[in-house]
Amino acid sequence: MVLEQEQEEEEEKEEAQRGFNLERDSLRLLNSMATPTVQQEAAAVAATPRKKMTKQLTGKRDDTTLHSAARAGNLALIKDTLSGAEEGQLHELLAKQNQAGETALYVAAEYGYVDLVKEMIRYYDLADAGIKARNGFDALHIAAKQGDLDVLKILMEAHPELSMTVDPSNTTALHTASTQGHTEIVKFLLEAGSSLATIARSNGKTALHSAARNGHLAVVKALLEKEPGVVTRTDKKGQTALHMAVKGQNLEVVEELIKGDPSSVNMIDNKGNTALHIATRKGRAQVN
């Protein structure tokens, strides 16, 4: 047990060192391209603590027979239930939400049951297919979050308009897929409509902001290829995707964003901070 603990501590130290090296390299790159004034201001930036967020989980209760069949992946029961239901009863059954706000279609999509989703979507109109669970996601959105391209394609083929649905914070499925780093999902949704990349959340952040923050290089490249102008878009704090990137640990993302528009290096947010200032604070280092 002592040996295992020592190994874990050593791995944590190595991970921390890798993170430090990447932060240091980001600082050097940004510093080399910033104006002298920005360099001087960045040298005075102090470190500030960051908050950690926790996610509240909800239970899945009050399932109907259709919910249970979807959760179990029981295609035969799904077919029998849907084909045997009367028209008025069918609509009620399809739109019925459990305690978590999930429809049976949402459950099938969440579990990645391709055949079930293909069968069920035949009965769903756009309104019912877009019903959101309590987490703000509809069936397409949860498929995007989990990187399930097969399920997402089936849903999009039936109702292409689902790509434009948003959660309560105005987050699109593209934005969520970008945050998670699901490159193939991102590329597929961009083919459906490149304008999706310009839609910002209620806090002003675009998909590029979130992809940059999480260090997803392939996603950043895909977004910039379809919508290059989004590189200088700012959120409600006045921060660009480059401001986000330097908070992460992927130097290649920083380089890609600078290549997209070198002038972004000297763009300031609402507090007068450039990306270099943010990098300095994150790295807890002085810039020479």
TrEMBL record:
<feature type="region of interest" description="Disordered">
    <location>
        <begin position="1"/>
        <end position="22"/>
    </location>
</feature>
<dbReference type="GO" id="GO:0005886">
    <property type="term" value="C:plasma membrane"/>
</dbReference>
<protein>
    <submittedName>
        <fullName>Uncharacterized protein</fullName>
    </submittedName>
</protein>
<dbReference type="Pfam" id="PF12796">
    <property type="entry name" value="Ank_2"/>
</dbReference>
<dbReference type="InterPro" id="IPR002110">
    <property type="entry name" value="Ankyrin_rpt"/>
</dbReference>
<keyword id="KW-0677">Repeat</keyword>
<dbReference type="InterPro" id="IPR036770">
    <property type="entry name" value="Ankyrin_rpt-contain_sf"/>
</dbReference>
<feature type="repeat" description="ANK">
    <location>
        <begin position="203"/>
        <end position="235"/>
    </location>
</feature>
<feature type="repeat" description="ANK">
    <location>
        <begin position="135"/>
        <end position="167"/>
    </location>
</feature>
<keyword id="KW-0040">ANK repeat</keyword>
<feature type="compositionally biased region" description="Acidic residues">
    <location>
        <begin position="1"/>
        <end position="14"/>
    </location>
</feature>
<feature type="repeat" description="ANK">
    <location>
        <begin position="237"/>
        <end position="259"/>
    </location>
</feature>
<feature type="repeat" description="ANK">
    <location>
        <begin position="169"/>
        <end position="201"/>
    </location>
</feature>
